[in-house]
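Q: Hi! First time doing this. I have a protein sequence and I read that you can turn it into a structure. Is that right? Here it is:
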Amino acid sequence: MKLLLWRRCPLSSSRIKIGRNLVCKRSPRNIVRKKPKRFLNRRQSNKKVGSSKIKEGIARLKTEMAEINVEQKSIAEGQKQVRKKYEEIQREREQLKKETELISQQSHGIRVRLDLMFEIMRARVASDSAKVAQLTLRLKDLIAKPKEQKEALMPDENNI
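A: Yes, that's right. Below is the predicted 3D structure, encoded as structure tokens:
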């Protein structure tokens, strides 16, 4: 078959390359012949070079993915630490809020007692003994209530 092709298209200059095939210009039928094997070997060697480039690219991507994985783990660990700190701050905030509320209640109680004492002093200056007795009883009741509340709170504080 090769001989027939060479007889019909004897000169190498009369063959032209179209894509992967060689075409004879002089032949009336324009006979097409495939490339010789040496071109196929070059193509195969190009495939090996291409596959090695692909393998290198894959290896590079794997190393990058491993680095990204390590970074993601460190970010996740940092987020956990931040979350723990945030929760701790929230607990401290709640505790401070309770303490300030307690202090506010105590200061309110002290203010009420001081106002009663001031009224008792005014009543004594005005020589109004009935009012003094009434205000004194109120003051005793107010002083007795916080002691009862403290005694009621003491067992709860020991449980904590």
